Task: structure prediction
Amino acid sequence: MLRVDPLRNPEPLIRRVYGYVAYRIGDGPDAEDLTSETFVRALRYRKSFDPQKGEPLAWLIGIARRLIEGRPPTLELAIEVPEQTDAGDLEEVTLRRLALSAAVSQLEPRDRDLIALRYGADLTARQIAEELDLKTNAVEVALHRALGRLRATIGEPGDPPVRKEGTAR
Amino acid sequence: MRHKRTNLETELRANRPEPSHEFVNRLEGRVREGRRSRAGSFRVAFAGALAAGVLAALASVGGLGYAATATGSAVDKAKQAVKSHGVLVVHKSPSRDQYGPKVKKAKKAKKKAKGRKFKRPPFTG
Result:
């Protein structure tokens, strides 16, 4: 049987794995280290990749998730956003990016994981469902709630009240 | 509200943390290098497996014995060829006459002398 090499075109994969990792643990050297480790493991266990189970990106994100979960919790990065009065020194885009990253870092680990999978790694709801062993519909609902909580964290006005995961039906 | 939701999702995608170009290039190089080295070892293993397979196939139909016999007969032929050329001695040839080992010839003069039995005449003086 002809094997499919999941790392044939690594550049876009590196960017998306990094996007996921950075939304989970914060942008910077730790995210770079973890992304590198993900690819080192992927190279080592390349033979275990089964194209029938999913795309290379989903496989890599699975490796990255396990690595993050294996990390000590003290290494979780707390992102600090500069005061609004310093906005003149920074570009608005950079400030907004930092604000978003900070808001994501304040979410519950499960919400953060969902946001990172959807908007960091750019996985579809179906791919996330396969990764988390959930139904696609359940993932869509969970994502909707996570976005609501993120909106509340950012402090955007007019947000609908979002119930906690535990209180949901 | 719908518009706002879309904005947040768009923002999350647009402001996704991006790795530095240097990091991407470095890691991409490592991945490509790792792929190449593994592909090389795979090729060597494949060649070895192919050779073993061919040998096994030959052995199953007695090909190895046939090959051994053929090789032996070829060696014999070669030996014969070398031997016949190697020990060829030409006994009569102009070069041998000129440069070969000297053969002592009987001196005719002496033989003649022996035959005549020269006798010095008696001293009369």
